Structure formats: structure tokens, C-alpha cells
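Before a colleague's protein record goes any further, I have to sign it off. What it holds is a sequence and that sequence's fold in C-alpha cell form. My question to you is simply how this chain folds and whether the C-alpha cells agree. Thanks in advance; the entry in question is below:
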Amino acid sequence: MRKEEKKEVVRELAQKLSGCDIAITTDYRGLSVAEMTELRRRLRQEGIEYRVIKNTLARFAAEQARKEGLTSIIEGPTAIAFCHGDVAAPAKALVDYIRSSKSELKIRGGLLDRRVLSAAEVTTLANLPSKEELVAKLLSGMQGTLFALVNVLSANITSFLNLLNARIKQLEGG
């Protein structure tokens, strides 16, 4: 790779690191070309970019993007999953791929904004419920509370109406 090409790659990586919400580093040793292609296809379906990167270029890009924490989780053959949006999506996709394919892929860690995550923290992130599930749970809890409030407030009115109906029947009969 010529010096100009390396500078371009570093600039591009720095932009990706600056713009991504989470970057997860992996050790891809032991994966065949077919497995790597399948992994990339699955990640692409989730809107995640997965790139094999030279460590030196990744370090320069991390410095340019002011995300120096990334250098602590880059060692040996490295591929990085970049994601915008749901920070749990790449973690879930990688952990699901490892489980389903019994792959040799190893998660080294992640960079969430400027915070470095260990491999265990990335796995924990993957096990969290999705944003949609959390919103659904919140809304169902709020809905249950509102139904209970409506029932409590309407109970007095219902009781009062029952009392009036009973009095009307009493007066008609007597």
C-alpha cells in the first residue's frame, strides 16, 4: 500500500470512528473465507459495517478521531464492527453469530463513545433487551397504571349511579 493510500484509509477510518456510536473489535483468526463472508452478510443486514484493519492504521485513525481508548483493544489480526444507532445491535449480531456457528471469532472489546468496554461488557450488552422491548415494557406499565386510575375514578361514579337507580326503583314501587 502506498503512503497516499494509507493516509486515505486512516482518514476514512477516523471519520467512521468519529461518526459511529459503537465500535467492537474482534479477533478473526480461524475463520475461513466462507465464514467471514457469512458474518459480513449477517452484519450488513443489521446495518453494521465490518472491516479488517491493519493495527497501525487503526491506531493512527483512533488518534485522529480522538478515541485513543481503541488502541488498548487492538492486538493481532483485528476486524472492527462499526454501528450507528442501536449500540446493542452489533454486540447481539456478533454474539448470535458466534453461538449459532460455533465460530472461532473472539470479541476483544468495544468503544462506546469514549468508554472502552471489555469483551465481557460487550457480551452483557448483547444480552440486554432491545430498545423496542424496553419501550413496550414501559408503555405496558404506564397503560396498566392508567387503567387502574380510570377504574378507581369510575368506581365512585358507578356506585353513585347504582344508588340513584335503586332510589328510582324504590320510589316507583312505593
Summary: The chain has two domains: 3-128, 129-174.
